[in-house]
């Protein structure tokens, strides 16, 4: 299948005309160069239309307002009406929202002149429930006709449960602002993953490929070999999914996250799922590892692409949990951090790549490291992963 955006310089995905199996095999090779004993990469049965979040940038064209994405390596916006990697319904909602915004007469925000209103639009759609949340990012707190637009959009699209405004008046490449308000409906939606209800807001982190994320998280839980005697720390916990999954098997779980919206979502989801052996705190994970009242036997780590900072790795080594399960979206920083933890006395037991981003160069992975003195038998593919 040929993508019409490729010729416009999108750069978001690659080689859609090739067989997925061939592309997957080639993606597996660079990961195996970093982790020679890695298990085969887990692919996807339907490797298109998997992105549960649509992000568009507004621009002013000769025929009026349009939205799209930046041409690779530039700040020139190319028009996008449909992306083959994004959820079809989320695409439809984005296009309907664009048509309604165009009727308001509002213009796109110009970074060079700091004029205009509309900067970006985000459509987040829950894979299992079909609920959608639309966020309009503006370059000013003023959004003339914003409430009326939101009500019209929700009338046209009943699956949109809320429309919010994010105010980003800074000179930055970051999409979301620090201030927000609800224009209509509510500021959260619910999804389901691994049998758990998940609370999501516009700012909270959530894997963009729900189907593959479920495989990834299940492998992470299996690798941890949790028992009722384990105390688990879920560092960089986001909306709390890994921690809540771990709470089914472990005795006590604590999730740590710096983003307040995500912590609020995690606490709400834990109540809704009736999970009583977990708590979530809004804090730096380094400080959580230094808490003498909660000494973990297992630590789950799911940091940003840059990997774990040096302070966290030092604190993790000092806390000396029996097992560390590290989820990463960047194999290179994962390799770096694994080597640091090896010097601290940990052994790499298993490495599992997962294709969360089909037809791109990116690979997600989960690895297990265990303390040599823990005396726990390593997980084998036959026991847990086959």
What integer is the average pLDDT? 92
Derived from helix and strand composition plus strand pairing, the structural class reads alpha/beta
Low-pLDDT runs: 374-386
Shape: globular
* Total strand segments: 16
Q: What is the CA-CA span between the terminal residues?
A: 32 Å
How are the secondary structure elements laid out?
Blueprint: H1 20-34, E1 53-61, E2 64-70, E3 77-79, H2 88-104, E4 118-125, E5 132-138, H3 146-156, E6 160-167, E7 179-185, E8 189-193, E9 196-200, H4 210-224, E10 231-235, H5 241-247, E11 252-257, H6 260-272, E12 278-282, H7 285-289, E13 298-301, H8 310-319, E14 323-328, H9 331-343, E15 346-354, E16 364-371, H10 381-385
Parallel strand pairs: 5-6, 10-11, 10-13, 11-12, 13-14
Antiparallel strand pairs: 1-2, 1-4, 2-3, 4-5, 6-7, 8-9, 14-16, 15-16
Helix pairs in contact: 2-3, 4-5
How would you sum up this structure in a few lines?
With 386 residues, the chain is of the alpha/beta class.
Report what the structure shows.
There is one protein chain. The protein is an alpha/beta fold and 386 residues long. Helix content is 29%, strand content 26%. The chain is built from ten helices and 16 strands. The chain has helices at residues 20-34, 88-104, 146-156, 210-224, 241-247, 260-272, 285-289, 310-319, 331-343, 381-385, and strands at residues 53-61, 64-70, 77-79, 118-125, 132-138, 160-167, 179-185, 189-193, 196-200, 231-235, 252-257, 278-282, 298-301, 323-328, 346-354, 364-371. Strands 3-2-1-4-5-6-7 form a seven-stranded mixed beta sheet, with helices on one face. Strands 12-11-10-13-14-16-15 form a seven-stranded mixed beta sheet, sandwiched between helices. α4 (210-224) packs across α5 (241-247). The longest helix has 17 residues, at 88-104. It is globular and about 70 Å long. The model is unreliable at 374-386 (pLDDT under 50).
């Amino acid at each position: 299948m040929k993508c019409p955006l490729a010729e416009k310089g999108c750069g978001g995905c690659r080689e859609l005309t090739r067989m997925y199996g061939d592309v997957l095999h080639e993606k597996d090779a660079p990961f195996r160069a970093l982790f020679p004993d890695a298990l085969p990469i887990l692919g996807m049965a339907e490797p298109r239309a998997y992105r549960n979040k649509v992000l568009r940038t507004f621009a002013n064209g000769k025929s009026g307002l349009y939205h799209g994405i930046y041409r690779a390596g530039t700040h020139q916006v190319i028009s996008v009406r449909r992306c083959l990697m994004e959820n079809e319904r989320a695409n439809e909602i984005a296009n309907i929202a664009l048509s309604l915004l165009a009727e308001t007469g509002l213009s796109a925000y110009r970074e060079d002149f700091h004029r205009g209103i509309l900067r970006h639009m985000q459509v987040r759609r829950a894979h299992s429930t079909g609920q959608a949340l639309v966020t309009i990012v503006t370059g000013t707190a003023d959004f003339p006709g914003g409430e009326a637009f939101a009500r019209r959009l929700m009338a046209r699209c009943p699956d949109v449960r809320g429309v919010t405004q994010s105010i980003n008046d800074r000179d930055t490449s970051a999409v979301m602002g620090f201030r927000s308000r609800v224009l209509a409906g509510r500021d959260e939606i619910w999804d389901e993953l691994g049998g758990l209800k998940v609370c999501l807001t516009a700012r909270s982190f959530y894997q963009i490929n729900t189907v593959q994320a479920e495989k990834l998280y299940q492998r992470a839980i299996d690798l941890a070999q949790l028992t009722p005697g384990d105390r688990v720390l879920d560092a960089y916990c986001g909306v709390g999914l890994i921690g809540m999954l771990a709470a089914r098997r472990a005795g006590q779980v604590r999730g740590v996250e710096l983003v307040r919206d995500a912590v609020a979502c995690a606490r709400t989801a834990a109540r809704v799922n009736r999970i009583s052996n977990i708590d979530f705190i809004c804090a730096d994970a380094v400080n959580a590892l230094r808490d003498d009242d909660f000494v973990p036997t297992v630590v789950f780590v799911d940091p940003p692409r840059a990997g774990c900072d040096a302070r966290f790795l030092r604190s993790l080594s000092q806390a000396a949990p029996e097992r560390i399960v590290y989820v990463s979206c960047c194999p290179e920083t994962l390799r770096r951090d694994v080597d640091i933890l090896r010097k601290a006395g940990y052994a790499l037991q298993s490495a599992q790549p997962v294709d969360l981003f089909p037809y791109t160069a990116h690979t997600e992975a989960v690895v297990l490291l265990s303390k040599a003195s823990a005396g726990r038998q390593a997980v084998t593919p036959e026991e847990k992963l086959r």
